[in-house]
Structure formats: C-alpha cells, structure tokens
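Risk register update: the risk that structure generation would not scale has been downgraded. Supporting records follow, first protein first.
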Amino acid sequence: NGEEGWHNVRRWTRSIDGGMLAQRFVVVPINEQNVHWWLAVVCHPRRAMESPAGAQGVGAGEPRTSGEAPRIVCLDSATEPPPKGRTMGFLRGYLWREWCARHPDALASATSEEELANAKVERTAALKAVVADVPKQANGYDCGIFIIEYLLHLLRSRSALASLGLAPHQHWFGQAAVSHRRERLRHIAGVLQAEAKRRGDADVG
C-alpha cells in the first residue's frame, strides 16, 4: 500500500523545503500494468491533512474558493479508463505517511491506535477523487503523449490549474495536436540519434 511504499522512497522528498505536502499541487504520472499512462494531480494536500474540518469549509483552513479544496484529480485520455480506487488508496496512504513523518507532533493527541486510525480515515477521505472531463485519445497508443499535452496546458494556464476537475476541459486540445506532438518528438529523437552516431557518444542531450 501507499504507506509501505513510502518507506522505499522516503528520501526522495527530504530536500524539498517543507516536504511534498507544502506544495499546492503534486503531479504524479501513473502507469497501469505497463500498458496505459494517466495523470493524477493532488491539489492542496496540506489542507486535508492539517484539518479535515477546514478541508470541508469550516474553521481556519476554509478554502476561499472551490478551486482551493483538497482533491485528487484524475486526467485519463482513455475512452474507457481503468478504475481509480486502488491508485487513490496508494496515493492517500503515501501522503498520510509523509504527513506523519513531517509533522509528528500534529498527532500527539491521538492516545490509541484506534484514534490514530480514525484520524487517518478522516483526513485522507478529505482528498476526494475527481475524474476530470479531459480530451480523449482516438487510438490505442497516444496515452503518454496526452500526459505531456495535459501538463503543458496546465503549466501555460493558471486558470486551468485552479479549476482542475471542477469544469469541462474537453476544449484544451484535440487529437490533431497530440499527433503533431508525437511527430515532433519523433523528429527530435531522430536528430539526437543521428548526432549520437556521428559523435560516437550516446550522451548528446
């Protein structure tokens, strides 16, 4: 599960100031059984872990807009996407373990295993799973390129990131843009391959 997996990569985020949960958005590429890629974006995870009441709009942690509410948004280009429940459990478990490691004093009031388990359920449940209405692929092989296009669009548009999962996103781009991106990447790969052959050196980045 995500908590056990955290131990395997716990050093990955130690150099990040405040840790992963200090970030407003955490982007996670997901691979399903080596056959399909999709993107998970964790929005405002700290709000969920600090105060589940605040995550639902009560108290000091109250979001000013719906866009500031904690959630895990799934961006999947498949017309019939795989279920997300197992992956959501992994992500929530990882984020919970990261929070516990970074903020051990925050759960000092939990005097029993039962209270700790209840706190975990309450706070991770505040990270609602949202399946975004995003552009879909018209073939069976462009899922990885769609991830690139999703990311580029989010990086270019502050409003798209703020409203992620809360409005239709089908207008972002179409299959033609993805096919063009694939051809550009193929061309770049060809140029690099030719340069590597000319130099006799594989590292030409």
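Supporting record for the second protein:
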Amino acid sequence: VGSGYIGLEFSDVYTALGSEVTFIEALPDLMPGFDREIAKLAERILIKPRPIDYRLGVFASKVTPGIPGVKPVTIEMIDANTKEHVETIEVDACMVATGRSPATKDLGLEDMGIDTVRGFVQTNDKMQVLDGPDGKVVDGLYCIGDANGKYMLAHAASAQGISAVENIVGREHMVNHEHIPASCFT
C-alpha cells in the first residue's frame, strides 16, 4: 500500500526475489512524491518490465490478515473520491508504505507546553522549537530530523543538526530545504 520511495524500493527487492507486486495508491499517479519526469522514467524502467501491477486512485480501506500458507491476506479497496467499494484482492502479504510518523509521544513535550502537529515538533528555520504552530520560540530547545517532519531524510537531518549547532553558538544559520536533494535507492 503506497507507491512512494519506500514502496518503490521494496518492490525492487521483492521482484528481484521472484515475487509479484501490486501497488495500491490513493493518488492518481504512481510515485506521487517524485518529479513527474523522473516518475515516468522510473515507471518505464523499474515497473513496466517487472511483475508489478497497480491500482491508482483507491484506498486500501480494509486489510484482513491471513495465515501464511493457509489463508491469503484480503485487501478491500474503495475509490479515493467516491469512497465506494471498487475491488477486493487476495495476496500472500501486505506491506503498508504510506509514510512515517515521529516517535515524540513520550518526550514530555506537553509538560513543557509544546504542542505538536500529528506528533511533529514545530520549529522555525533555525531549528528552534516552537510551542505550537506559528508559536513562540522555546528558548534553548532545538529539534532536528524526523521529529520535526520538515524533510525526513538522513542528510536533511545532518544539515539541520549543523544549523542547530551554528545557532546554538551564536552564528545565525538557516537550512534551505528546497536545496536538499532527495534520492530513491532503487
């Protein structure tokens, strides 16, 4: 479920190991987070020649676990717009690759008066923690990486860490997230 970076990378591995893959994508295009030209090229090179099928514009509304070798996993799909049932498929296994979520629940942020958005710590461009969306800076507290949700890639976290340290020592620095490259390891 999901045809972004993670889904594409795992489809590469599983098809190389002899599996058939079916993408279930809620958006109208495969690889929705990719540049459209790159997505078209990847589809031509990585998807079309392999045993990969796909359903676009549908949600996996219900996944019923199976029993390996005994009963298949059942996936019910609904139209992304009308929410009407469109298809049910049976598969050996189901992998959900629809995004990531931060592990910030037990950090005690609420006790410090910090409101998160879907678990993500809000920061300004200097990586200073804000007490909420469009909130005030929490003095002396910085947040980098997946916890702030700005750009969930390791090299982005490194750039954010450098920025945080520069700002901590008094040298103003801001990360321009538009200049951080993305990659797909497929």
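The chain is about 20% helix and 20% strand. On this basis the risk owner (M.S.) recommends closing the item.
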